[in-house]
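Private note to self, pasted from the team thread so I don't lose it. Backbone tokens:
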């Protein structure tokens, strides 16, 4: 049996995720393994938050031949701790780690003797081939030749780059049936319905944003499930999990206009009553597409704008025009599609004046939701290399760098973030939208919260 796991979240970390979503990556890998005849189970300890002793008890009870652990830079320490616990509980198991951090820095995983193998990039093909090799008793000098796998061969790290799946339709639906779906908070702030579930329909990104590391994980070309396949999965979720809303995770939902329009057409012709939200760039939509999306059930679009300073936009290599941002947000209002956006504070080279320009620009957009986030440098990105090489940080936690420059430190950023967030929400137009969207009761409650914050 193969056991796929998440780790418990780190204690008292300000950098964790507020929501706990089903681990789609593990569910995809589980489905691929199952399709190839392997018995698979998933243990979502990010959701459960069980102690190490409880994790050990689970390992002893299940006695898996392979334990696969997903790992981000945030959960690096927890991942190593979990790997050690698994080996202590059942020494015969092989430990495989995958996910963002192992893909970017496999050597930091293999330096721990408890970790046997690393899967690089997307895991379906690599994990299936790796599982076959492990269970057939093959040695590392042979296993080390599998694309997308890293391991030690004669005390040296062997690493073969991943091969990405071009035809994503061959990948089976994520094995949501192996997850405790009823235990997740299946609501989403951008949608008026529940339950809301997540779907991933794109992989890879051709853009070169300096702060982003996903190109290393998913590749530089954008691959997508076909609209027909997406429709089939939506129907499956509606029928089996009662889904009424979909959050399409991924940065560039509308990167192919014709494909997006075909998906919208199929949602309507199949009479699927679903509300949904997605993420994209402002230069990947127009009024025609927005109208098609609205008619197909799109309620909210999230646009990552990141900075209102042209100088910092250039630094981030985002390559979007701020006037175009304003134009698209106005188009969304005309079509009556709600908008959500986020901005980053604390980019290396940014000044407090740049941050003020970001706040002013954010206010001018008058988005339905606006979030200010403190930038944390993550492995795999261009900015991370700059931050580390120039020593522009005052704390490193699980390879995540807290940026510090002559212009700001983390404590100042927290203060600015709180001020920006509070003052951006204090607007009559925002309360009017809340009344229109959620009713007077909700508006009164939110208004009071803003006044006394």
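Design output:
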């Amino acid at each position: 049996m193969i056991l796929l796991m998440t780790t418990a979240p780190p204690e008292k970390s300000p950098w964790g995720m507020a929501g706990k979503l089903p681990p789609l990556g593990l569910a995809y890998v589980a489905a691929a393994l199952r399709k190839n005849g392997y018995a698979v189970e998933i243990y979502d300890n990010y959701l459960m938050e069980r102690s190490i002793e409880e994790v050990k008890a689970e390992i002893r009870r299940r006695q898996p031949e392979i334990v696969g652990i997903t790992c981000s830079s945030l959960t690096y320490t927890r991942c190593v701790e979990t790997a050690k616990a698994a080996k202590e509980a059942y020494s015969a198991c092989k430990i495989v780690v995958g996910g963002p951090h192992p893909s970017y820095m496999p050597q930091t995983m293999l330096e721990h003797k408890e970790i046997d193998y690393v899967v690089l990039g997307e895991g379906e093909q690599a994990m299936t081939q790796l599982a076959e090799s492990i269970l057939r008793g093959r040695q590392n000098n042979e296993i080390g030749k599998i694309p997308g796998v890293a391991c030690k061969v004669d005390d040296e790290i062997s690493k073969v780059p991943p091969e990405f799946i071009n035809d994503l339709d061959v990948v089976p639906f994520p094995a949501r049936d192996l997850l405790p779906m009823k235990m997740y908070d299946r609501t989403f702030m951008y949608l008026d319905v529940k339950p809301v579930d997540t779907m991933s329909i794109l992989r890879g990104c051709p853009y070169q944003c300096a702060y982003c590391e996903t190109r290393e994980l998913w590749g530089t070309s954008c691959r997508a499930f076909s609209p027909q396949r997406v429709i089939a999965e939506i129907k499956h979720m509606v029928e089996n999990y009662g889904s009424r809303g979909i959050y399409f995770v991924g940065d560039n939902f509308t990167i192919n206009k014709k494909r997006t329009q075909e998906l919208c057409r199929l949602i309507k012709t199949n009479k699927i009553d679903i509300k949904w939200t997605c993420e994209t760039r402002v230069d990947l939509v127009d009024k025609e597409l927005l109208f098609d999306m609205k008619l197909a059930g799109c309620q909210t679009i999230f646009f990552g704008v990141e900075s209102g300073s042209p100088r910092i936009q250039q630094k981030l290599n985002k390559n979007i025009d701020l006037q175009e941002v304003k134009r698209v947000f106005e188009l969304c209002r005309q079509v009556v599609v709600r908008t959500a956006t986020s901005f980053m504070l604390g980019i290396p080279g940014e000044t407090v004046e740049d941050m003020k320009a970001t706040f002013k620009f954010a206010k001018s957009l008058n988005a339905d939701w606006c979030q200010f986030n403190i930038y944390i440098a993550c492995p795999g990105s261009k900015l991370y290399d700059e931050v580390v090489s120039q020593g522009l940080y005052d704390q490193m936690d699980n390879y995540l760098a807290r940026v510090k420059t002559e212009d700001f430190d983390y404590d100042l950023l927290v203060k600015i973030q709180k001020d920006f967030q509070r003052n951006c929400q204090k607007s009559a137009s925002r309360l009017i939208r809340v009344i229109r969207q959620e009713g007077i009761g909700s508006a009164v409650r939110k208004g009071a919260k803003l006044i006394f914050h």
